[in-house]
Amino acid sequence: MRFVSIFGSVFFLSVHYGVILYVHSSFLSDFFEPNAVSFLLLLGAIGSIIFFLFAPKLIRSLGKRVFFYFSLILVLASSSFMALATTALTVAVSSIIYSCLIPMTYYCLDIFLEEISTDNKTGEIRGIYLTFISLGVAMGPFILALLATMWQGFQPVYTAAALLLIPPIFLAIFSFKSNTDKTHAPYHHSLKLPFGVWCCDRNIRRVTLTRLVLEFFYGLMIIYTPIYLNRVLGFEWSELGIIFTVMLLPFILFDWMGGELADRFWGEKELMSMGLLITGFSLLFMPFIGKIFWAWMVILFISRVGASLVETMTETYFFKHVKADDTGLLSIFRLSRPLGNIFGITVGILTLNLFSYEIMFFVLAVLIFLGLRESLSLKDTL
């Protein structure tokens, strides 16, 4: 029953996230200049890092359930304020709060799931979990496309996203229980995360750095691709909703399958490296595509085939090497998301101010290929 509650919660949370994900930078662009948009997203990523650093301490003090409620309710409130916002200040504050706390909701669900998972089925369980996340995120752009055909502006988008958080709040209240609310590894007596342990464990360090490369890819592509396709190439949001929905299908198709393959046949190392190669090569073609609907749909789909393999394999590999009470190591692993966002935003600002969107894709491809050094150095689990 707990699996059903966790999977249900992460599904609705991910639909919510998917609705907002690819429009948020464009929404902010209605109130701020491009550099200010990047700065706001940067502040949100820094705030998220601060929360990750303090998360073990907060969980020890409050318990996972209370911390999860706190994060969900503030994400709901910030989404609602963005739906109703008419001033730049309201948008800025709400956006920062949202960016800080949306990763915390997934962090708490990670811990709940790890408590009830077994090592010999980690790949399968994580694959199913990621499939629910991917299905939810993929439905987001589809809902966005429907809303774009019926209403103008971003208010309906953020209103719909806020309403989608109601089911996970009810599921959390009535279904989530924890046997270890107050037990989270000895280093939680300190505010410090176990970076010494992380550095000494080569495999956990390498899989975290590989994940950082993936999150860097996400951070840059999620922010700047919608702006490029909408503002530079001139695609409508109704078109982009379809493109992004198709783009996200690999996460639904390959997450569960990838977890099964990693558990039974191939190791995570090989699939992870293959994913990096696919993603990197797809990026090399993007600068040469103009306003061709089907071409962008295909190349973005291929890029996410690679990304889905890297995502599933890094998740599976990491959780095979930790326990439910290793929330300090989990915090470090999940720090890859806000750090990746920071690196992505920084590279985006530099390349766009010095060069162009086309050069940005080449720079990203090179950095993706550099991630192979870490993935190929992993000790395989098979």
UniProtKB/TrEMBL annotation:
PROSITE patterns: MFS. Keywords: Cell membrane, Membrane, Transmembrane, Transmembrane helix. It holds the Pfam family MFS_1. Residues 2-382 form the Major facilitator superfamily (MFS) profile domain. It is found in: Cell membrane. InterPro entries: MFS, MFS_dom, MFS_Efflux_Transporters, MFS_trans_sf. One of its GO terms (cellular component) is plasma membrane. It is a multi-pass membrane protein. GO terms for molecular function: transmembrane transporter activity. Signal peptide: none annotated. The chain crosses the membrane at residues 7-24, 36-54, 66-85, 91-109, 129-151, 157-176, 212-229, 241-259, 271-289, 339-372. Its main location: membrane. It comes from the Bacteria. This is Major facilitator superfamily (MFS) profile domain-containing protein. It comes from Candidatus Zambryskibacteria bacterium RIFCSPHIGHO2_01_FULL_46_30.
